[in-house]
Design a protein that fits this description.
By secondary structure, this protein is mostly helical. The protein has 2 domains: 89 residues, no CATH class; 287 residues, no CATH class. Helices cover 68% and strands 0% of the residues. It is built from 18 helices and no strands.
């Protein structure tokens, strides 16, 4: 039995992927350690996110819906703990509601601290436990990396899967979003968006099988609902993935549009229930949260300003410097070589372009979440194009160039981490 499982799940590609994810984990832990050695628990947004989550876990209201001073018996309630009025939270309305995020990020941040005694958790003495809030975000980074590898391998083969995962595992932007707990929690929304899009595509492909659609696909429907709840719970603006998922369902399986619509409605229903769960089944709090939620905070003005495009493009390069070289090569190849213009390459390119535009439109708000998600989809697009180039008669030369670029990219990131540790 064990040998059968080993043969099924531990082939060479899985081993390579596991080693790369271990490298990602090592870098994330190292970056977390560096950040902890340089800063104390004085970042007001981080403290507030933890305190709000703690408040909800212990029954003193819903995190960010609205922000309130904690119950006097709750941890972090010392005289010097930051309050909503002191912090001046971006994306908060006059009623004290977080209009951009649901309770999910607050609950995730404070989840590892839930069972520790309050006397240990006073925020001024957080040096003994302050690494704990980073654990869920690092886990999200690992899950997103594993998801990217799985999808890339299915679409582009083993080479494409490894290329996408190397780009991901040594990405400064991904590592920062996963390991620095006081950074804006962008990794959760990116994971939810990626999961939603490709779960919808996977579900659509199963519609060609001669089975009872809804009953057979209940696991994938539930997974799609979970992805929707994660994406929207982490950022209300990610509700854009709902119509995108429907569009892919209908496009991939045009002969089963009714079945696709039923699956989409079922997944939306599951996502709604799971989103409601994040409010601990409090109808009044949920309705109030949805009333104050800003599902669109963007503006078309940024789309008309060239400087905003430049800033957004630079952010993509900061997330992954190799994209400055890889994306132009991939775009030129895609435009000039008809063989590369198939669904597996076109879908991530279109979604990346859409999220890039949304990042520009949300330049004053949630640009980071959309641009990080765009970065992940660009990894998939670049990996697909490079995998296609490796199948040409110039395979040896192309492979050598790709290995050189990826090796230099990984080495550069490791050296940057080592230099950061020395200050």
């Amino acid at each position: 039995m064990f040998e059968k499982l080993a043969r099924q799940f531990f082939h060479r590609p899985q081993c390579y992927a596991g080693l790369l994810l271990l490298a990602f984990l090592g870098q994330a832990v190292w970056l977390m350690k560096i950040n902890m050695s340089r800063t104390n628990l004085s970042n007001e947004m981080e403290v507030l996110r933890i305190t709000e989550g703690w408040k909800q876990w212990h029954g003193y209201g819903i995190a960010g819906a609205p922000f309130t001073d904690l119950h006097p018996n709750v941890a972090f309630s010392g005289d010097t703990a930051p309050t909503m009025q002191a912090v001046g939270i971006p994306g908060t309305d006059s009623a004290g509601f977080d209009t951009e995020h649901g309770p999910l990020t607050y609950l995730v941040s404070s989840g590892p601290l839930m069972l520790l005694p309050e006397r240990v958790l006073h925020w001024q003495s957080g040096i003994s436990w302050r690494w704990l809030p980073s654990i869920p975000f690092i886990a999200c980074g690992l899950f997103l990396g594993a998801s990217l590898w799985y999808v890339a391998r299915r679409l582009c083969g083993n080479e494409g899967g490894l290329i996408a995962l190397i780009l991901y595992c040594f990405s400064p932007g991904i590592l920062e979003a996963s390991a620095i707990s006081h950074a804006r929690p962008e990794i959760i929304a990116a994971w939810g968006a990626f999961g939603t899009i490709f779960t919808a595509i996977a579900v659509a492909h199963t519609l060609y099988a001669p089975r009872e659609v809804v009953l057979w696909n209940w696991r994938r429907i539930l997974l799609l609902g979970v992805s929707l709840a994660i994406a929207i719970g982490a950022l209300f603006g990610m509700i854009v993935v709902v119509p995108i998922a429907l569009a892919f369902l209908l496009y991939v399986a045009p002969i089963r549009k009714r079945a696709g619509l039923v699956i989409w409605l079922a997944a939306c229903g599951a996502g709604f229930v799971l989103l409601f769960t994040q409010y601990f089944f409090g109808w009044k709090a949920f309705i109030a949260g949805m009333h104050h939620a800003a599902f669109w905070t963007g503006s078309g003005e940024g789309l008309r300003v060239f400087g905003v495009y430049k800033v957004a493009a630079l952010q993509l390069v900061r997330n992954c410097p190799l994209l400055a070289v890889a994306v132009p090569i991939a775009l030129i190849t895609y435009a000039g070589w008809r063989r590369t213009r198939y669904f597996g390459n076109t879908a991530p390119l279109l979604v990346a372009a859409l999220f890039f535009a949304l990042g520009i439109a949300h330049a004053q708000g949630a640009a980071g979440e959309f641009l990080l998600a765009a970065t992940v989809f660009l990894y998939l697009f670049v990996a697909g194009i490079l995998a296609d180039l490796m199948e040409t008669q110039y395979r040896v030369i192309v492979t050598a160039c790709i290995v050189g670029l990826l090796g230099a990219y990984a080495l550069w990131n490791l050296l940057a981490l080592a230099q950061a540790a020395r200050g």
